[in-house]
Amino acid sequence: MKVAVLASGRGSNLQALIDEWQGDSLPVEFMGVGSDKINAQALVRAEKAGIPTRAFPKENYLDKESQENDIANWLEELGVELLILAGYMRVLSKNFIRKAECPIVNIHPSLLPAFPGLNAQRQALEYGVKVSGCTVHFVDEGMDSGPIILQEAVPVFEEDDVDTLSERILKVEHEIYPEAIRLLALDKVKCQGRKVKINRHS
Ligand code: GRF
Asked: Which domains, ranges and CATH numbers included, belong to the chain?
């Protein structure tokens, strides 16, 4: 499966995917890693792994539509079959998502549908939940609202702050994102309306 990744920042989820791929346990072809930030650490990680990179910096575009057109053309040129968002901090427009020629997946640091949007770990702490976690989901036109592929829970402790909770969640993100991409690449994921069925046994 030909995949591309969009990331804005440090790229630790991208690194988890690269590590699995280099260990031969992720049957994908990384066609490219793109970013809206020219200095994203994610681009450095991709280059180190020999994956072509491309920056789509906001400052180079008159508006979001022209930036997204460039991203769509890039994906088409690369023949991408799955777009992976890994800490991509610009919300993709409804138009981009509607017109996308391949599925888009994202990882979010909460147990959706709780705490969508920005600062999910802070939202969880402020709400006072005892359990949080992360979710891999298909991207639809809403905010973190698409069908759920995998989730993993972690405990929330009374002494947690945003950093300690984020770190605990990130550890499981690095496990379930590669697992979800592996299941998708092996065609074991079927979306039936809102529900995602996973066939782990065939
Ligand atoms: C992760 O917490 C992910 O859940 C969220 O953005 C963060 C990206 O971290 N969507 P990294 O750039 O992969 O380290």
From this structure: 1-102 (3.40.50.170), 106-202 (3.40.50.170)
Q: What is the pTM (predicted TM-score) of this model?
A: 0.97
Mutation choice for ligand 1 from 173, 174, 175, CB with most ligand atoms inside 8 A: 173
Does residue 121 line the site of ligand 1, with CB under 6 A?
Answer: no
Residue 106 CA: nearest ligand 1 atom is 10
Nearest to 174 by CA among 83, 82, 104, 107: 107
Question: SS3 sequence, 79-106?
Answer: CCCEEEECCCCCCCCHHHHHHCCCCEEE
- Kindly report, residue by residue over 68-118, the tens digit of the pLDDT: 999 999 999 999 999 999 999 999 999 999 999 999 999 999 999 999 999
- pLDDT 10s digits, 22-50: 999 999 999 999 999 999 999 999 999 99
Give distance in angstroms: CA of 29 to centre of ligand 1: 21
Tell me whether residue 108 is one of the annotated catalytic residues: yes
